[in-house]
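Subgroup meeting minutes
Present: P.N., E.W., G.H.
Scribe: E.W.

1. P.N. recapped why we're keeping a running log of single-chain structure predictions: easier to compare across weeks, and new members can see raw inputs and outputs side by side.
2. G.H. added today's entry (346 aa).
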Amino acid sequence: MSEAFYPALSPDPALRSPMAATQGEVLDKSAYRDLYELASEAGLPYFARLNGAGEVELYLVFESVDAFVEQTRDAVSVEFKTYQGKLLGVIWTLSDPLQPLGFPLTFDIRQAEQRGMALKMLEQPCTLLHYLAYEGGALTHIYTESLSFSAAEVERTRDMIRSLFEGKSEAIPQEAQVREEETLTVSALSLPDAVLLEDGLAYVFSYKRMVEAHGTEGAQHLLMNTVRQAVWVMRRHARSEVREAAFTVWVAERGELLELIVTPSLFELFAVVPMSEEEANPFSRFLLTLPTFVQTKEASALRAGAFPLLRYENGALYHLELDEQVQERLRALFVKAFPGQPVPYE
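Output recorded in log:
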């Protein structure tokens, strides 16, 4: 078990890392080609990297030097939690309890390389955190600091990793597990017409297969948990325009299929063909992994006869209450938007 738990890592000795001499300088594209690939081509706003010496380094990539100044205040820290069977190393750069800002690095402990990197980061004497800015095609090394973990933190996190590795998530203390923020409840009538008329992207599932596998309650729980995971990523995203996005999640049952529709589609925020999961639309990143996923398609929530369930706005997630008044309003909007077509809200 010991050998399997501690996998061998294979560093690339050709990799170069930012150093004191490069602080405040633009990094050379040929010498730091892998960093340019990760930060620009792959668009990663934060990542962990095994350097040429076999040490794990952390990177935060900001939109500009000004964004770095705005988003890093007080002492930076790393907090280890678990979420959905994975280890999170959350780099906290703002400690304001009213506006915390964290960059959640995800380590899939079932994958040997990621497990090895998580363990190495814990057990090496210190971990370097490099702050970079990518703007105008240039990657600037802003600053580097050294982070270390106490013996108690190392032991606690190592135990969490072992529990995840052995499939014993129930052994992880509740305080080490990510808990969702309280969701406020408001009437769906509070949404303006412009929001209800937005088009978006539908994620289509074989709901019949999902219910057969999990039961009705289990299927609904699985879908909502997956949606909440995507929202959790968005509200902590490194890019401000992602954190500040507004969207609505709808649901429509169509025979044996179920459609989760996100309006608007969020195409402008994420790469069409992502090179990594960090730059992907979080809804696509998580929903497409469900075994009963069928397809995505552009969709009108109203035309599909969908009902709004969740609204995300200004960093807050709202559960939308539905009643006969909401149904009547959706019906009236449908008749106005699609005259002469069969009304699904009868």
